[in-house]
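SAMPLE LOG
Freezer: B-3
Tube label: C17
Construct: single chain, 179 aa
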Amino acid sequence: MVRTPADNARSAFDALERLYSDADEAVRRLAAIHGARLACRPGCGQCCVDGMTVFAIEAANISRRHAPLLSGAEPHAAGACAFLDEVGRCRIYDDRPYVCRTQGLPLRWTEERGDGAVVELRDICPLNDGGIPVEELPSGECWTIGPFEERLALADIAFGGGRRVPLRSLFGTRKSGEE
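STRUCTURE (predicted):
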């Protein structure tokens, strides 16, 4: 059976939905562990910065699920994420990109240094930095950067993406004089 581009897109969107579901489950587990230190709440928006880009599959997912918003509403003012509303809440929360789903958690990743040594690095939002220093947390209590990002990249490849899309660019532009 020959797969059509529509079949490939559907399969890629299904993979994206599974990734989001799996990520949300893992985030809930970590949020339960770190609940006392997490200051993230609706309307915080400290990590909702302007200039954020996402994989093409995520941009297409937002476009297909939020067409009326993208064609009929204005983006948030420059300086913050285009998808925030007037009180700082996300207008696409259920369909927010992967990066937005993991913000605020203690993060861990590895990097190879110039001498070939591999080191683990960690970070956390300054608003969530109270409690045990992030460097002292067990590795299982941190979000490990890498595995989910690989799955996202593979879904994007299956979709035919391969480029990053600025979130702000998803909003339709009105021609001068239109209301």
